[in-house]
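Re: glutathione structure - here you go.
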Amino acid sequence: MKLFTYFRSSAAFRARIALNLKEIDYEPAFVDLRPNVAAQRTPEFLAVNPQGLVPALQHEGMTFTQSLAIIEYLDELYPHPPFLPASPADRAHVRAMALTVACDMHPLNNSRVLSYLRAPMGRDEDTLNAWYQHWIATGFRSLEEDAKRLTGDGRHMFGKSVTLADIFIVPQMYNARRFKCDLGSYPTLRTICAHLESLPAFARAVPEAQPDAG
Ligand SMILES: N[C@@H](CCC(=O)N[C@@H](CS)C(=O)NCC(=O)O)C(=O)O
């Protein structure tokens, strides 16, 4: 398997965690997203993913995009350890937490949105930081309540083992720290992430552990 990745991309971070949890030996292909390089907009990469976004996964002659689709593909191909619980209701709870990150938080704060706010919208760095922190707080407030209700041991978003919700919360928490968001109101999320980050599959996926980390 080949994963198109960039060390700082939180969507690629999710895919790296999932590959590590499934113990899949993958070949990384580095796509440099820095504005002065913008490898994601080259014809070569657009031929891989016309959206110009990482991650993308190549396997058996096919290319897959969108981190959630990639991770569910891996889970269906390699069912152990499972990323979703057994019952339909529990699966819906786990998916809802992952989707809060994937659909309601990350798209508002990803690099192309921040770049667009900078230019052509002409917003300064203070405004961008306020924007970033606002959407982190909005998402984390609800995830804190979800996790309090659904965790089984205070160390996982749902139940007592790693699920899709854990794969999505850790990269988002990493970025929230990077952008110096106030995390004081989310003790459950902080405790869960501290535990998850201590697991080898998560620790090996962090941006600073990647070969392309600058
Ligand atoms: N919904 C997509 C989001 C992918 C995404 O936004 N990737 C970012 C990095 S985290 C990217 O490639 N950005 C390049 C750009 O903004 O030009 C997913 O989950 O895979």
